[in-house]
Amino acid sequence: MTLRITITPKASEDIDELFAFAYIAQDNYDVALKFFDAIRLTFSQLAKNPGIGSSCKSVNSRLFNMRKWAVKGFARYLIFYLDTDEYIEIVRVIHAARDISAIFEEE
């Protein structure tokens, strides 16, 4: 069964920022497009296999059952998501080098 994907506004902002960063840092639009395609492919993978990824602890009770999974081909970029019986909610997409605990304390 394939679940539908919902993307929070914050996750959408993350994707836009990471796409722009990939383009600017690499000065290569093709790399940025590959990154964007990899995110979409990974979202599809999550929709088909919602239990993959490891659980991720958060002090925010709304994010209690959150999981994380790396973007295919871009292992340093992590997708944080919640899975329900009906859909996958993409909460954030964050580079692994960032202070992830602090980011989610602010959520």
Topology:
Layout: E1 4-7, H1 9-26, H2 29-48, E2 54-55, E3 67-71, E4 74-83, E5 87-95, H3 100-106
Parallel strand pairs: 1-5
Antiparallel strand pairs: 2-3, 3-4, 4-5
Structural description of this entry:
- With 107 residues, the protein is α+β, with helices and mostly antiparallel strands.
- It is 42% helix and 28% strand.
- It contains 3 helices and 5 strands, in the order βααββββα.
- The protein has helices at residues 9-26, 29-48, 100-106; strands at residues 4-7, 54-55, 67-71, 74-83, 87-95.
- Strands 1-5-4-3-2 form a 5-stranded mixed beta sheet.
- Helix 1 packs antiparallel against helix 2.
- The longest helix has 20 residues, at 29-48.
- The chain is globular, with a radius of gyration of 13 Å.
- The mean pLDDT is 87.
Which structural class is indicated by helix and strand composition? Answer: alpha+beta
Q: Assembly type of the shown chains?
A: single chain
**What is the molecular shape?**
globular
Q: How helix-rich are the residues, as a percent range?
A: 40-55%
What average pLDDT do the residues reach? Answer: 87
Give me the Rg, rounded. Answer: 13 Å
Q: Span from first to last CA?
A: 30 Å
Q: What's the story with the biggest beta sheet? A: 5 strands, mixed
Number of helices: 3
Low-pLDDT windows of residues: none
What strand order characterises the main sheet? 1-5-4-3-2
Total number of beta strands: 5
SSE string: EHHEEEEH
